[in-house]
Amino acid sequence: MSSPSMRILASTLIMAVTSASLLACGDDGPDDGSTLTVWSLEDVADRVTATRAIIADFTARTGTKVELVTVNEDQFPALIATSAAAGELPDVVGSVPLAGVRTLAGNELLHPSANGEIVEALGRQTFSPRALELTADGGRQLAVPSDGWGQLLVYRKDLFAAAGLPAPNTYERIAAAAARLHTGGVAGIVAATAEGDVFTQQTFEHLALANNCQLTDDAGEVRLDSPECVEAFRFYGDLMRRFSVPGAQDVDTTRATYFAGRAAMVLWSPFILDELAGLRDDARPTCPQCQADPGFLARNSGFVTAIKGPHAAGPGQYGEISSWAVLDGAADPAASLVRHMLSDGYPRWFGMSPEGRFPVRRGTASEPEKFLAAWAASPAGVDRRQPLAQVYGDDVLTTLRRSPDTFQRWGLTQGQGALVGAILGELPVPKALSGVVSGRADPATAARRAARDVKAIKAGVN
């Protein structure tokens, strides 16, 4: 199973056709107008199988045939652009990340009213308010939010307890813990530093949002050189330079270091949860204690969702929301399919990978906690499957399932969705950050470089 940290939609539409492979399943006959065409950005084999089963149930109930086309997320911009140019848009797109929703909206490919009507039909009050906010613009509901994941700080509870340290939920506490625990072959903290990696962008944005460092202000002016952002660059650079491990770090090396018991803290996505629990053979904990006790790290790890920096009024957390979207010109049954995916088919959808798919529709009007309860009971894992509640306990699960209400993202609520997508393609912030981590640049210089480069990108987007 791949982490969303490694699979980000570049949201600038590319009008040239790129080499792409589409896997179609469902009805193999020609489209005579009675078949819905659904694209899904979930292209992992077991998730494709699960999606087909959910759709087959919809067809059995309604008689509506559905052609499912799975699309690699990296190829989606080119494919949707080509499809739009040919007048052959799908009816529905599923598992679309936030930047992708803004891209579809910016190019006027969304149904003008269908997505909002679906939310109202299902019950606006049954959704996370924050998820609705992140998928809306100017009072218009752009897509129907389905599930999400938020960046986590995972820490060694046993080491913190032995040192008398509190949970690392503020800049001050993280820095103090990193300094205190950076001894004898154990790094204080590991986090992404590879400058060409979206994972570095996500991890830095998580800590930047915690300090109220914003990409732009409400007027769209780039603010990466603000005092809040300079402090975020300084904080991240100091941690990585003084209390981490040498060399460029990425999604694999950071996880491996923590799993080996050689780091007191790691910043990662919740897709680490099933791996930490030993439910995947290709990514299992290898710490010395783990040899005799495979559950050692899971039992001795704590999880922090939102973090607070010195310049922020409250804590913040980087979060990603995946949505269903009805596209312009869709056939009439399209809305019915999306409603099915968020109701009868919903537990099976988020149950495909519950460790990184927190439901943002909590329940129904009559059963307000229905889907949250189903999520907590959903087995996670690949080679072995087990409900996360059995591994981590109800308190951890409660914290995780509440996290979508604290999700934040750069630029989206400021109307800068196109810019967000563009910077994911060029990654100016990780490039600037690398100078601070290596000691080649001071934080203020790095912040100014990031701001300058983002302004140049913004000029091209506009």
Low-confidence runs (pLDDT<50, min 5 residues)?
1-33
The value of Rg in angstroms is 22 Å
- End-to-end gap: 36 Å
Overall geometry: globular
Please outline the major beta sheet: 8 strands, mixed
CATH class of the largest domain, anyone? Alpha Beta
- Supply the number of structural domains: 2
CATH topology label of the largest domain: D-Maltodextrin-Binding Protein, domain 2
Number of helices: 20
Average of the residue pLDDT scores: 91
So, CATH architecture of the largest domain?
3-Layer(aba) Sandwich
Helix content: 40-55%
Q: From the helix content, strand content and strand pairing, which structural class follows?
A: alpha+beta
Percent of residues in beta strands: 5-15%
CATH homologous superfamily assignment of the largest domain? Periplasmic binding protein-like II
User: How many runs of DSSP E, i.e. beta strands?
Assistant: 15
Short description:
The chain is of the alpha+beta class and 462 residues long.
3D architecture notes:
The protein is α+β, with helices and mostly antiparallel strands. It folds into two domains: 4-148 and 321-389, D-Maltodextrin-Binding Protein, domain 2, CATH 3.40.190; 150-317 and 409-461, Periplasmic binding protein-like II (D-Maltodextrin-Binding Protein, domain 2), CATH 3.40.190. The chain is built from 20 helices and 15 strands. It has helices spanning 45-62, 76-85, 98-106, 114-122, 129-134, 157-163, 171-181, 198-210, 227-243, 251-259, 272-276, 296-299, 334-341, 346-350, 370-377, 388-392, 394-402, 417-426, 428-438, 443-461, and strands spanning 23-26, 35-40, 65-70, 92-96, 136-137, 140-141, 144-150, 152-156, 265-268, 301-304, 317-326, 358-359, 379-380, 386-387, 407-408. β13 (379-380) and β14 form a beta hairpin. α3 (98-106) crosses α18 (417-426) and α19 packs antiparallel against α20 (443-461). The longest helix has 19 residues, at 443-461.
